[in-house]
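Translate structure to sequence.
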């Protein structure tokens, strides 16, 4: 078999496999949009639920999701970026660091419900934060941390070594080299990883089920020690626990959550594209 024919067969096989992944996802998105677009209105997005959540809107759930996402960012980004800088720039290639990297990879594959149980035991009960935004944000921060560390470390190590050598040869310290030469060039990949991690956290149900989510709470939280509603848990509740719930409200809630997560993904893609075009290498 000729090399060109082999390449052609491989290309078609890869395209077919990609289609098997993309087409079902596309169909799911179209199905949710088709069934949920009729429920989207100004009242739906700006009013609290009424009459046992069978009427009204989902404003408390939207704001609760935003609060939890911001709390997750505060909890995960500084630690994640700091750990990535240490592993990529300071840590030697030893058995300990290889074990740490392996642990980070394994943590990224742990089911989210395990994080929820850990958050319940550590933050809700042991540290006595109660079911609160603080406990939920810290739990989601732990969930997001492996993604942030892995993507940030890969972005840092992708910066050419010559940048470091030239900076150090001109008299800059290691930290000055990292701050002014490495991090600016690694920023697109780091931002992309952070936003994608936050998008995953925004769509999680199991961790917030144990640590923060309220079944029905029309009032806004007043502090980080209060409970809050959240879109993933609210969607679970109205789909399984509320009899007589109109399907349009269920799909409208799902569509709103989908739009939030997709918006984060689109923002990450735009930032990465714009910043990569500005790079000189």
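Result:
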């Amino acid at each position: 078999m000729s090399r060109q024919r082999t390449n052609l067969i491989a290309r078609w096989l890869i395209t077919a496999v990609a289609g098997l992944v993309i087409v079902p996802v596309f169909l799911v998105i179209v199905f949710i949009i088709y069934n949920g677009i009729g429920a989207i209105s100004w009242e739906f997005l700006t009013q609290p639920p009424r009459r046992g959540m069978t009427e009204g809107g989902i404003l408390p759930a939207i704001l609760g999701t935003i609060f939890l996402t911001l709390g997750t960012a505060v909890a995960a980004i500084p630690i994640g970026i700091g750990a990535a800088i240490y592993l990529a720039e300071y840590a030697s290639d030893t058995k300990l660091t290889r074990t740490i990297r392996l642990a980070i990879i394994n943590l990224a594959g742990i089911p989210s419900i395990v994080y929820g149980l850990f958050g319940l035991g550590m933050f809700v009960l042991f540290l006595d934060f109660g079911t609160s935004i603080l406990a939920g944000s810290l739990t989601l921060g732990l969930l997001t941390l492996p993604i942030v560390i892995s993507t940030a470390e890969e972005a840092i190590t992708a910066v050419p070594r010559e940048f470091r050598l030239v900076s150090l040869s001109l008299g800059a310290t290691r930290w000055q080299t990292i701050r002014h030469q490495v991090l600016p060039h690694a920023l697109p990949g780091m931002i992309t990883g952070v936003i994608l991690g936050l998008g995953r956290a925004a769509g999680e149900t199991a961790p917030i089920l144990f640590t923060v989510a309220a079944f029905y709470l029309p009032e806004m939280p007043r502090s980080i020690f209060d409970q809050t509603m959240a879109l993933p848990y609210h969607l679970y509740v109205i789909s399984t626990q509320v009899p007589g719930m109109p399907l349009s409200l269920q799909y409208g809630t799902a569509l709103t959550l989908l739009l939030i997560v997709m918006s984060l993904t689109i923002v990450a893609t735009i930032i990465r594209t714009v910043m990569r075009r500005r790079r000189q290498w």
